[in-house]
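User: Can you help me understand a structure? I only have the sequence.
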Amino acid sequence: MTNHTDVSVPTKIEGRLKAIIICWFFGLGNLVAWNSMLTISDYYYQVFPKYHPSRVLTLVYQPFAFGTMMLLAYYEAKINTRRRILFGYILFSLCTLALVLLDVGTSGKGGAANYVGICLLVAGFGLADAFTQGGIVGDLSFMDPTFLQSFFAGLAASGALTSGLRLITKWAFDKTDDGLRKGVILFLSISTLLEFSSVFLYAFVFGRIPIVKHYRKKAASEGSKTVASDLADAGIHTTDDQVDSERLSNKALIWENRDLGFDLWLIYAITLSIFPGFLCENTGQHRLGSWYAVVLMALYNFWDLVGRYVPLIDCIRLKSRKGLMVACLSRLALIPCFYFTAKYGDQGWMIMLVSFLGLTNGYLTVCALVAPKVYKAPEQNALGNLLVVFLIGGIFSGVVLDWLWLINHGSF
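Assistant: Let's start by predicting it. Here is the structure, written out as tokens:
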């Protein structure tokens, strides 16, 4: 390992708690649009019963997210981070609003043309995810580690919040005419407002918090040029004679952290091979009826959120990188467990498995991303982007593997 500059956490600079809360909202805004799509799958299965919505829409989303993220990670050092993140959140907001307008304009009718329109908007979500998630993770990687943990907790909270809202809106309109559709429109409208709040917080609040300005000034002094626009917005202007120290190449960063990259890929490959497609289509008929898949996804999202807060308890956070690898590999056993539970088990066993899937997903994600990595700010930013590539790559792999369940299910 080469010698790198340690990043200390200042104790007298104001705004740490405020920054932590806003980072949580950034995570919420980053996935609330996509989680909204997942949690209204019961509606799309009613409108498009022959098109496998949960699987197809996820498969549309991921290539755009993964391909764009690879490109952005390669050019990370030359990209204006502020514009990148704002573009992503604005795109999220507009695509979510467009989903509402599309449903209202078509009166909730099915058909191939309307389905293609939804797929195009989902592709927009994929693009936006790459712009925001990689940009935010890179930006927070050279700041207080708690900021990054809070962002990933916000990602999980988006799932828990959307699941909770979906249960409420489904219940509120359950006995009314066209109640499912009314609940979905209200639900997507709330999601749109949450997306616009992320735009506001990043554009006008986050960059002006004293502790954030401290870290960005430190990053600029270490040669980072990606923070210049954010510093300028906060009234701090950098000069061209800032230290432009040599940094490790992306190839070297990947090699030094190949275990963490593999961990993140494996975590999400396993999770997305089960969630949401398997839960929506392969768990059979149960007493909960149309509520069953919604309840399972709500439980997954709740325990995923809990898992992302568990590492805050230092004594139970997994710090060994070898131990982290073993824990990630052990989750492979979940695949046969879900298969046999769906075939022979009852609702209680499936609920327990889904809860464990969410808990381990959240816990191991945070442990991998906040594992000790002592680099200079430009390298931390680059590594944050690269690890997100592995994370999204794992999601993409899981989405593809999820289709294998249909072979046994006889749905091809």
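Now, to help you interpret it: The chain is about 75% helix and 0% strand. Residues 270 and 331 are 7 Å apart (CA to CA). Let me know which part you'd like to focus on.
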